Amino acid sequence: MRVIADRRSVLVEVRKYDGALSGRWTAGRLGQDEHGVWLGTAQGVPVQSDAGGWPNRFPHVMVIPRGQWWIATFCADPGPELYGDICTVPEWNADRTVLHAVDLDLDVVRPRGGTAYSKDEDEFAEHRVRFGYPDHVVARARQTCHWLMAAARRDGHGAEPFASAYRDWLSLFVGPPLLP
Question: The DUF402 domain covers which part of the protein (predicted)?
Fold first, then answer.
């Protein structure tokens, strides 16, 4: 874990494939490690979208991997332990204060103490047709979803940062370490 002393804020902007705003909020840069850049968002931070706005329900940390088609969010209790968004490769602006990604609808959720499952297959199928996802985007999204399901396994065969590495970042952001 490499904590960044400069904790300037980052604007996270996630859009749908048609350009509609799916979510925009501010997060704090926590640091980086071999898994990517880690951001933290406090409970109550306003989230805006084209469908309206709401306060963030749980404090959480996110890892933004390098060159991958996903973003993983790890929530404090009582939120889901893991919420993985399948998206285009996240892109930073030049000074790394704005993060952009395109949400491809598929999600992998691991409830606290539960088993990971895929979510929003129906939305993915609908948007694939409505927004005209190219075949290579469909293939990459499905491949990434299958990989993330396997990586997020709880039975000891899961991969990092989904097994335990996220715990240090979450405790750095919200309090004492979590028990396994």
Answer: 19-156
